[in-house]
Specification:
- The chain has helices at about 5-10, 15-20, 45-50, 75-85, 105-115, 125-135, 155-160, 165-175, 185-190, 225-235, 255-260, 275-280; strands at about 15, 30, 55-60, 95-100, 120-125, 165, 180, 210, 245, 270.
- It has about 290 residues and is of the alpha/beta class.
- It has two domains: about 5-160, Rhodanese-like domain (Oxidized Rhodanese, domain 1); about 160-280, Oxidized Rhodanese, domain 1 (3-Layer(aba) Sandwich), CATH 3.40.250.
Amino acid sequence: MSHPDTAQTARSVVSVEWLQAHHDDDNVRVLDASMHLPATGRNAHEEFAQQRIPRAVFFDIDAFSAASALPHTLPEASQFAEAAGALGIAEHHTIVVYDTVGLYSAARVWWMFRHYGATNVAVLDGGLPAWIRAGGSVEPLSTTYPACTFKVGTTAEQRAHEVVDAPAVLAASKGSAIILDARSAGRFAGTDKEARAGLRSGHIPGSVSSPFVQVLDEQGMLKSEAQLQALFAQWSVGQDSQTITTCGSGVTAAVLCLALERAGLPPARLYDGSWSEWGSLNEMPVATSLE
């Protein structure tokens, strides 16, 4: 059995070349964490059945979320552990998560596994498109890992501060933290209508428009550490910043969390309800400009 070198996983991102070299290691587990919004017309399950990185299993974000009116929210620790164990994923495995967009929903699953105590989990930089560009093989065959036990680490309690609710975000919006909104500029400004019914348009007062696509290059891969540091500086985030990330439903907010880590900046707290919650709460204030 071989294990990943520390340098490759120190910032929770691995390259296609790394995965090609370590793909068959006994301790490696590969997860396809793809999800698509209805407007895209894409079906992640169908695409996974057609082609996947060999040995990959499918992690369904919707199925492994809390039973809630809000989409994709964190499940209870016991629910997550049961789901992960059924897929053959233990907390000690080297877990590599990818998606078929490049970098979109994989970061959310990276964040979830980390939250519940996985000690070595990384996102595949550039996802399936990067794997295919590099000549990596794909297969339509079904793959399973033997079921096992995922033990939620004590870090789950220690990491409780990583998740914030609406009242905490409201308090932070008064200046105690920088709130980064990963949605598009149009949704942030309220000029683009929200896809989910019943949601107001606009953004959390005091938050910063920080579209997640800006942390990616033209091929859907994370920008370099220096590029990300410069970008976050434009958003007023530095080494002493307290940061909260938000988006539409807590998925692309995790892309900003991953980018902050690559940039060597302090970790952010993630607003799990995100705009799906805030936009539905009439008591919460809404702003509608790019200021």
